[in-house]
Specification:
Layout: E1 6-9, H1 19-34, E2 38-41, H2 55-66, H3 89-101, E3 105-108, H4 112-124, H5 148-156, E4 162-165, E5 172-177, E6 181-186, E7 194-196, H6 204-214, E8 219-223, H7 230-239, E9 248-252, E10 255-256, E11 281-284, E12 291-294, H8 297-300, H9 304-312, H10 327-333, E13 344-345, H11 348-361, H12 364-377, H13 384-394, H14 402-407, H15 420-426, H16 429-441, H17 450-464, H18 468-480, H19 488-495, H20 497-510
Parallel strand pairs: 1-2, 8-9, 10-13
Antiparallel strand pairs: 3-4, 4-7, 5-6, 11-12
The structure holds one RNA strand of 75 nucleotides.
Length: 513
RNA sequence: GGUCCGUUCGUCUAGGGGUUAGGACAGUAGAUUUUCAUUCUACCAACAGGGGUUCGAUUCCCCUACGGACUACCA
């Protein structure tokens, strides 16, 4: 019987999610939806030392903003609750015990100092890969080397100990990665990983295998940084006798810093010149403890659709020439086989381009709301109708929602200064005279449409014997103060004939001829 | 150092034993526009190197180089 597809996104709440994490979540989500399965969110908080308050909430909010819906998780619950590993603590012990009973794991009583000494000794002896393994475990203090009685005694006391996996000395471990094909690693390259820490918490390796099994996960889609430890996970499935239902693995290519040196990390914050986080993050400096703010895509004005579309294409493509995809289209077209193997760099230009595309596709009435919100903040009255008109003429010229207000202020405020270059070149007595006459007649004009205003202007200029091209730049600067903007006739029409006339008169008075 | 993964225009990528190696972003030029932007058109620009296999390799294999990940009682 075909198993229901179940995938999980399993972040550790040690800070904000960065865009690489969002992409991992996205690919998991796309696969789940594509195959009619379930998307789980599991919080991997087994390291109590690295707990960061607010991180879990941030992760959930970021996913929600991005449009990645969770079917089972800490918030929504589900048949395999709880979905926080710290709350599942009692469940892991028995599996570690099972491994000990079957001879695949053992107790180790070495102190951190013992381990340091061991590593130092191996390094001094020029051992290529100092690790706790099939060879070195014989020289350490563990249930393999100590007499049985002593082990029992130690366990009965409160001497701290860990449980380690007994990795075979010589064995090829292989698995098939959905993206990379067969991956083979020799067991000698894997060390005797700690499964249970001395604080009673499982490590990632144990917890993730146990939870994936219990939660009936069918596909593990995670970052490439997990590739080297995947064989270890295969070994765990085998020793726990779960190999027949072991999930399929897919290791995603990393997201690199734009200069190509190293993977993107959350510590990059704002250092790269673009946000690495979906949402703004309020944290604190690791050394000084000072509060810090890292910018986010949401606050920078990126639309989630654009952000997601861009992110989906970082390491995946549909094989067609289509660039713009809604979430539903992404789901429809997604396949894990088309994820590329090689790492990708973030391209700021392209995210911006995506944002412009999605912004322009929105109806004017919706875009007008961005402007209206900014106007309210500045205590400026504006009818919805007027805001819709402005949005309509401005939409081709903006990248972010906040650009509407920034670029369109002259619709509400008369210019306080005028572009000097245009004035020097285009402002002269005949022009001023013609514009003055235009301004005198404009308020009485019955047709206030762009075409009507144009007709009046043409009429006035004809009387004066001036060509329209000679005065338009001057007129624009007189009305708006700046040289660039949407169609001037439409601009004047939106500003209103009375206000436009007044602005022209002001300019005629103030500017030298 | 060791293990593993990767390498097509500046960037994201398509392709795949015989192609004018395709698209998108960026860049450049032109057209449109009263301006700027948009839009349109064109241009620029890539198979890391060396060996094989083959009639023929950018494509398959090997080596080298380069890049990256991992190498914790972190995930």
């Amino acid at each position: 019987m075909e198993r229901e597809v179940r995938v999980r996104f399993a972040p550790s709440p040690t800070g904000p999610l960065h865009i690489g994490g969002v992409r991992t979540a996205l690919y998991n989500y796309l696969l789940a939806r594509k195959l009619g399965g379930k998307m789980l969110l599991r919080i991997e908080d087994t390291d109590q030392n690295r707990f960061v308050p607010g991180a879990e909430k941030y992760i959930m909010e970021a996913l929600r903003w991005a449009g990645i819906e969770i079917d089972e998780g800490p918030e929504q619950g589900g048949p395999h609750a709880p979905y926080r590993q710290s709350e599942r603590k009692p469940m892991y012990r028995q599996y570690a015990q099972q491994l000990i009973d079957s001879g695949h794991a053992y107790y180790a009583f070495d102190t951190p100092e013992d381990l340091d000494v061991m590593r130092a000794r191996l390094t001094a002896a020029k051992v290529p890969n100092p690790q706790y393994n099939a060879i070195t475990r014989n020289q350490m203090r563990n249930s393999l080397t100590l007499p049985e009685d002593e082990v029992k005694e130690l366990l009965a006391t409160d001497v701290p100990y860990v449980i380690r996996l007994k990795v075979p000395r010589k064995e090829e471990v292989r698995f098939q990665d959905l993206i990379r094909g067969w991956v083979v690693v020799h067991s000698s390259a894997i060390d005797d990983k700690v499964l249970m820490k001395s604080d009673g918490m499982p490590t990632y390796h144990l917890a993730n295998i146990v939870d994936d099994h219990l939660m009936e996960i069918t596909h593990v889609i995670r970052g490439e940084e997990w590739l080297p430890s995947a064989p270890l996970h295969v070994l765990l499935y085998r020793y726990l006798s779960w190999e027949s239902t072991m999930p399929q693995f897919a290791h995603l290519p990393l997201l690199l810093k734009p200069d190509g040196t190293g993977k993107l990390s959350k510590r990059d914050g704002d250092k790269l010149g673009f946000p690495v986080f979906p949402l703004e993050w309020h944290g604190q400096d690791a050394e000084t403890g000072e509060p810090t703010i890292s910018s986010g895509y949401r606050e920078s004005g990126y639309l989630p659709e654009a952000f997601i579309n861009f992110l989906a294409f970082l390491g995946w493509n549909p094989g067609s020439q289509q660039e713009l995809f809604t979430m539903d289209e992404l789901i429809e077209s997604f396949s894990i086989e088309r994820v590329s193997k090689s790492p990708a760099r973030f391209d700021q230009n392209k995210v911006r381009w995506y944002n412009e595309q999605y912004l322009r596709a929105k109806p004017d009435t919706e875009l007008a709301q961005y402007l209206l919100a900014a106007l309210r903040e500045h205590n400026i009255e504006c009818s919805e109708e007027k805001a819709v008109q402005i949005a309509g003429v401005m939409k081709e010229r903006v990248t972010f929602p906040q650009d509407f207000w920034r670029e369109a202020q002259y619709f509400f405020q008369a210019p306080t200064s005028y572009d000097e270059q245009v004035i020097a070149k285009k402002w002269n007595a005949p022009t001023a005279a013609a514009l003055a006459e235009f301004a005198r007649e404009l308020p009485a004009s019955s047709d206030v449409s762009p075409d009507g205003i144009r007709a009046l202007l043409t009429q006035v200029l004809e009387r004066q014997g001036i060509k329209i091209g000679q005065v338009l730049q001057a007129l624009r600067v007189a009305v708006t103060g700046v040289t660039a903007g949407p169609d001037l006739m439409a601009t004047m029409s939106i500003i209103g004939t009375a206000e436009t006339a007044q602005r022209i008169e002001t300019a005629v008075q103030r500017l030298p001829q």
